């Protein structure tokens, strides 16, 4: 009896190479880890690269081709998980036979996990499987996905979303985070963390983490008053960070400061402060044993109740639940 889990990665032409290579490496390194350290006799995952147009060599956006086994007609094994890489050249619609195959698989094998990476969400949405479900994609494509598929509850922030056996991830590298989440489902958090270490990832990110890093926002602008404010905010989270105080520090009126800040950072001062506090609190929950009240004070949330409100608003979870899952 075949005990390995067969993973099919559907590769459209002109997809990003990382949409394919990221998940492939996670599954490969997991199998190596299980064989070496857990003495798993059989290869835990067998990954199959399958083209959408039956070709063997699929060109990618970087110019490097991906060598596939062929098309879906050659699948003769039980499929545990399907991952749809970014849609690549399929800007209008995917091949009908691919959509029908995905739908049939979901209907006849409802436990099969079906996931999309980046713009692969458009292909998944075309099947109708995202209707009524929360979903995400690359932040640059969020509005297009929501406009084209109004029945899908598109969310811009999360790096990946799970809805039953249907998964969607955000842009490119987040396919690695999604795949690690699949590994954690199969083998537990400890194995997923060890694989993250093998891949030399900074951390294993939860799905509800935002696609937008406040650290990156500080690098977005060269306009000194806003750049200095962005940095100062993150170094003084436990202080009064009202617009009035920030504006005074920048020697600007509150109205002008808010306008310029939004223009340069793409976010209001108040929202940036909240996101910075959530990011800081999240790190402390992951890395320290501080109480919720202590973390709330350090991050400027006031107390545990204030911290809870921030987490529910931004991460759809509580600090206690977050710590239990990710610390």
Named at the architecture level, the CATH assignment of the largest domain is 3-Layer(aba) Sandwich
Oligomeric state as shown? single chain
Count of discrete alpha- or pi-helical segments spanning 4 or more residues: 14
Helix content: 40-55%
Distance between the termini: 38 Å
- Biggest sheet architecture: 6 strands, mixed
InterPro entries: Class_I_gatase-like, DJ-1/PfpI, Homeodomain-like_sf, HTH_AraC, INH-QAR
GO molecular function: DNA-binding transcription factor activity; sequence-specific DNA binding
Protein name: Transcriptional regulator GlxA family, contains an amidase domain and an AraC-type DNA-binding HTH domain
Domain HTH araC/xylS-type: 227-325
Per-chain topology:
Elements: E1 5-11, H1 17-37, E2 45-51, E3 57-58, E4 66-67, E5 79-84, H2 96-108, E6 113-116, H3 120-126, E7 134-135, H4 142-148, E8 153-154, E9 160-163, E10 166-169, H5 174-187, H6 189-198, H7 214-218, H8 224-235, H9 243-249, H10 254-265, H11 269-287, H12 292-299, H13 304-315, H14 319-326
Parallel strand pairs: 1-2, 1-5, 5-6, 6-10, 7-8
Antiparallel strand pairs: 3-4, 9-10
Helix pairs in contact: 1-5, 1-6, 5-6, 9-10, 11-12, 11-13, 11-14, 12-13
3D architecture notes:
- This protein has 327 residues and is an alpha/beta fold.
- It has 14 helices and 10 strands.
- The chain has a 6-stranded mixed beta sheet. Strands 3-4 form a two-stranded antiparallel ribbon.
- β1, α1 and β2 form a beta-alpha-beta unit.
- The radius of gyration is 22 Å and the shape is globular.
């Amino acid at each position: 009896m075949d005990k390995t889990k067969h993973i099919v990665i559907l590769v459209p032409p002109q997809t990003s190479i990382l949409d394919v290579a990221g998940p492939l490496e996670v599954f490969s390194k997991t199998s190596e880890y299980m064989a070496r350290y857990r003495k798993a006799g059989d290869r835990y995952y067998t990954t199959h690269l399958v083209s959408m147009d039956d070709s063997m060599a699929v060109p990618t956006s970087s110019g490097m081709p991906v060598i596939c086994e062929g098309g879906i007609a050659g699948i003769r094994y039980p499929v545990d998980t399907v991952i749809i890489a970014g849609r690549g050249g399929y800007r209008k619609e995917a091949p009908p036979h691919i959509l029908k195959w995905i739908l049939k698989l979901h209907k006849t094998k409802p436990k099969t996990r079906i996931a999309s990476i980046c713009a692969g969400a458009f292909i998944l949405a075309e099947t109708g499987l995202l209707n009524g479900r929360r979903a995400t994609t690359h932040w640059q494509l969020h509005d297009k996905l929501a406009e084209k598929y109004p029945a899908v509850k598109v969310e811009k922030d999360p790096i990946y979303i799970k809805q039953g056996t249907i998964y969607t991830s955000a842009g490119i590298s987040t396919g690695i985070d999604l795949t690690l989440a699949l590994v954690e489902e199969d083998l537990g958090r400890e194995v997923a963390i060890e694989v993250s270490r093998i891949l030399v990832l900074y951390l294993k990110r939860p799905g509800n983490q935002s696609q937008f890093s406040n650290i990156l926002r500080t690098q977005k602008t060269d306009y000194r008053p806003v750049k200095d404010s962005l940095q100062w905010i993150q170094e003084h989270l436990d202080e009064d960070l009202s617009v009035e105080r920030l504006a005074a520090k920048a020697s600007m009126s509150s109205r002008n400061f808010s306008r310029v800040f939004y223009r340069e950072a793409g976010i209001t001062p108040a929202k940036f402060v909240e996101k910075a506090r959530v990011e800081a609190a999240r790190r402390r929950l992951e890395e320290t044993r501080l109480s919720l009240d202590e973390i709330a004070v350090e991050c400027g949330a006031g107390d545990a109740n204030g911290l809870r409100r921030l987490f529910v608003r931004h991460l759809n979870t509580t600090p206690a639940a977050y710590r239990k899952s990710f610390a």
